[in-house]
Hints:
This protein is an alpha/beta fold. The chain has eleven helices and twelve strands. The protein has one domain (about 1-230, about 265-310): 3-Layer(aba) Sandwich (Rossmann fold). It has helices at about 10-20, 45-50, 75-95, 130-145, 170-175, 195-210, 230-240, 250-265, 270-275, 285-290, 300-310; strands at about 1-5, 25-30, 40-45, 60, 100-105, 115-120, 150-155, 160, 190-195, 215-220, 225, 280. The strands form three sheets. The protein has a seven-stranded parallel sheet with strand order 3-2-1-4-5-7-10, sandwiched between helices. A three-stranded mixed sheet has the order 8-9-11. Strands 6-12 form a two-stranded parallel sheet.
Amino acid sequence: MNVLMSGYRGFVGTNLIEYTKNNWNITGLTRHRQENDILPKVMTWQDVSGAGLPDVSTVVHLAGKAHDMKGVSQPAAYFEANTYLTQELFDKFLQSDARCFIYCSSVKAAADKVDGVLTENTDPKPQTAYGKSKQMAEAYLLQQTLPAGKSLYILRPCMIHGPGNKGNLNLLYNFVQRGIPYPLHAFENKRSFLSVNNLCYIINTMVDNAGKIPSGIYHLADDEALSTNELMNIMAEVTKKNIRKWNISPSLIRKVARLGDYLHLPLNSDRLQKLTESYEVSNEKIKNALSLHHLPVTARDGLVATIQSFQST
Length: 313
């Protein structure tokens, strides 16, 4: 399987390379070549602009500008990385002999806040530059005429985690390790997570079955949604630490987080929202498309593996 992969040096990319190492022959797509790169075959975006795609059957487009937790990025940077480069790559795909295009978007292209459970039928209403840039890319892809024999899969993962990932889960882990009381116990929520192993399984299976699976948008999440308090209980079990929990007024916590926005503290409004909001994502469409009753990794097992990885770093 000859695959062109952008964003191959990132967290998802490196995991996907490892997951498919026995089946995929990957050419990396990057802005700049590096010495001793993780892939032996690499081409630049400039190469693609000039000569088009190499001889591949599949394009996996992971590259993009991630959501900026500190809020210092300019909106134009999101549209340049997430929208315009995606449009350019998809145009080259349409002109090529490649048969399958996978675009890694985000649930934030659909909604920043969720009332109930987020499905693919939700009318997209992104509020941030990040979400808008992803949604604009999606809209462009869907507006193009897809020739017979070609497949387009737009994947919207929720919060991705896995061993080695340094994100919001690591922030909670640091609370535990330092013995700092957990101050968010008063928040009640349910949110979906996505193990990077489940993500790699889905992408690999979709590539193997390209053409048999209908083109379109698919939301990706683990089978179970968990509360942040449940997550902290899992963290306590893994670390063997007794976590002190404070029932501080949510309104007071939100004021502290807004202060963090200005002082660039670890806890700001964006992180607080990600940690405490209810954000449930349905994965029924992708499971039906792949004829699955459940994904390989449970939410709990995936989170345990992620938390255990923090202990070894």
